[in-house]
Amino acid sequence: MNFSAKDITQKAREEAKTKYNEEKQKLALQMMIMSYYKIKSMLTESGLRKVQNIDQKRNNDDNYNKKFSEIILTTMDEDWSTSLAKLVTNISKQYGLVPGKDFNIEVENDHFSEEKNLDFYV
Predict the structure, then answer these.
(1) How far is residue 75's CA from residue 34's CA, in Å, rounded to a whole number?
(2) Residue 24 contacts by C-beta under 8 Å, 6 or more apart in sequence?
(3) Pick from 23, 22, 21, 52: nearest CA to 36
(4) Using CA atoms, how far apart are residues 100 and 17, in angstroms rounded to an integer?
(5) How many CA atoms lie less than 13 Å away from 11 in the CB half-sphere?
(6) What pTM, to 2 d.p., does this model score?
(7) Contact 99, 105 (CB under 8 A)
(8) In 3D, which of 105, 80, 81 has the Cα closest to residue 92?
């Protein structure tokens, strides 16, 4: 069976998107853990009391913990999008890629409309 360049490209993109999402989940958890410990490593006595009080509240109140976690995840998504855009730009330069020619920055084609939901484009 012969595949067109378009088919091969589409398959490669889908595989890369799947791997990206898998790695993003692992990275998000790792970033949250690292951030938590970084904050704790810089706390003063008053800061430690505040963190302990919030952590205790999170442990005792599932609704509060859920809302707290959602805020953290939203913040991480925003920060990640900014960082990812910068990383992609810098890495693409090393490959000699030209935005808009060698890779899509803005996706206008309905065939790729789901891509508008990728972090980089949000």
Answers:
(1) 15
(2) 80, 119
(3) 52
(4) 18
(5) 6
(6) 0.56
(7) yes
(8) 105
17-26, 34-43, 54-63, 109-118, range with the lowest pLDDT: 109-118
Q: Which two tokens stand for residue 5?
A: 């360049």
Domain range summary for the chain, segments of one domain joined by +: 5-121
Q: Which amino acid is at 76?
A: M
**Using one digit for the tens of pLDDT, what is the confidence trace for 104-116?**
765 433 333 344 4
Q: What is the rounded end-to-end Cα distance, in angstroms, of the chain? A: 37
Q: State which H helix or E strand residue 103 sits in.
A: none
> Both tokens of residue 114?
């789901």
Which residue's entry shows tokens 């970084």?
Answer: 38
For residue 99, the cross-strand partners are: 103
